[in-house]
Amino acid sequence: VQLAESGGGLVQPGGSLRLSCAASGFTFEDYKMSWYRQVPGKGREFVASITWSGDAVDYADSVKGRFTISRDNAKNTVYLQMNSLKPEDTAVYYCKRNAGSYWGQGTQVTVSS
Question: What distance in Å separates the CA atoms of residue 64 and residue 59, rounded to the nearest whole number?
């Protein structure tokens, strides 16, 4: 199982980023996927999840209305569209396959003026 996040970077408050997580080594369309984030000194925090079919999604209260999780099973990729970013969204963002608890290496998102 391999998960590779990309798309992080530095963005100003109010800006947008789209994160991608490319999956390999398993049948992607069979699994629920999630995004988490972590800041130094704290545990990983749930951000969003999406079922295998994409018909059900869930979000942390802190990102509802600003972030959108989606997936393309043909491309073995899950996305996180992040809009109206705030400085408190600064973190390393991780992709996770829920079953078996597999994680990617993370991608840094920094929201700062």
Answer: 6
